[in-house]
Amino acid sequence: MVYQKVLNVCFFIHLFRVFADKENAHLTTPQILNKYGYPIEIHHVTTSDGYILTLHRILPAKNTIRKPVLVLHGLFVESSSFVSTGVKNGLGFLLADEGYDVWLGNVRGTPSSRNHTTLHPNRDPKFWDFSWHEMGTIDLPAMVDYVLNVTYQASLHYVGYSQGTTIFFVMMATHPTYNAKIKVHMAMAPVAYLGHMKSVPFGTTWNNILNLWFKVFKINEVPPNNLFFVLRRVCSFSFKLCNLVSMSIFGYKTNQEDSNTLTYFLTHFVVPVSRKQGHHYMQIIKSGYFRRYDFGRRKNEEMYGSSNPPSYNLSLVTTKCHLFYSRDDLLVSEVDAARVCKELGGACASSNLVNGTIKHPDWLIGNRIGELVYSKLLNIMADY
Asked: Is residue 9 within 8 Å of residue 360, measured between CB atoms?
């Protein structure tokens, strides 16, 4: 069940390459920004454990007081997901047009942050020994401190999408002093609990087999290339069969009229993640708890002093959070979003159920996402 759901994420996020501006699909973040004439700076941050992270900075288009905003991507994508749809729909562009000093983050392991002071991603398995816990406890605090240092500001705005919200919650639960450094958290498709995901399950047996397969063959970087190679072959044979297989495996069926749509997006590979990173999400799906990585009873006792990993305490979050979610998002359900808001307590400043058909990738590439979400997001941010 849980591996199917993670593959579902992979499929959803990959769709942004389909519906986004096809001319931008192969371009990096700096190339896209240069294409549209937006001033860009590339910054590098070295974490305490040696990962070299890249931040893409879009300077404000208007001659206004710079208001720094840090924007963080979801699973299987990186900073380009906020600009690939072009100047009219890309959140990065819209923020810059509003006068914000935009910083697009890239967590460890993404193509833009696939660097380390001593480890090589292709040769050293230890490079991939991380989950989103390390991103929340190490990567995000390092990014926040760097941005504030460069901009000479005491605090900044934060926009998170999917995994970007998870990382924020981890940072605040483990480093509550950072509440003072964040003006507001705009959380699109907030992920802390995933127990009510809507999908077509494979079942526990498949989950165990796939997990064992990853371990036996020492696959630390996922997804494997052969996953999409098979689907590309299917799609080249029959679009209807392609849609059927996609629905069966990922729980998603495209309504795009162009019969080349699925074939088009399957010609690209998703941004890789670590096996441990994906497995951590599977653990919270299965357990129903938002908690640290589960190493197994014996190692948990060594690491945490208990047989089960400790939960992240969302009550430690005091930064005002505005949650945005949709009934049609197969990954982030209303029930799970409501649970996040409840545990945040007074920090949950608003819980916004978005009208309209917004599936998980639509937060980035939906035709009406600017009208349905971004306009309200920008209005709320202006109050902080």
From this structure: yes
Q: Alpha-carbon distance 384 to 32, whole Å?
A: 29
The amino acid at 345 = G
Contacts of 347 (CB under 8 A, 6+ apart): 314, 317, 318, 319, 320, 321
Annotated catalytic residue, options 79, 80, 162, 326: 162
Distance, CA of 140 to CA of 256 (rounded, Å): 36
Per-residue pLDDT tens over the stretch 103-132: 999 999 998 999 999 999 989 999 999 999
Q: Look up 351 and say whether it is catalytic.
A: no
Residue 360 annotated among the catalytic residues of the structure:
yes
CB 174 within 8 A of CB 199: no
Q: At what angle do helices 204-216 and 2-14 cross, to 10 degrees?
A: 80
Q: What is the pTM of this model?
A: 0.86
Mean pLDDT in residue range 306-311: 98
Active site residue 124: no
Cite the beta strand spans of 223-333 per DSSP E.
273-274, 320-325
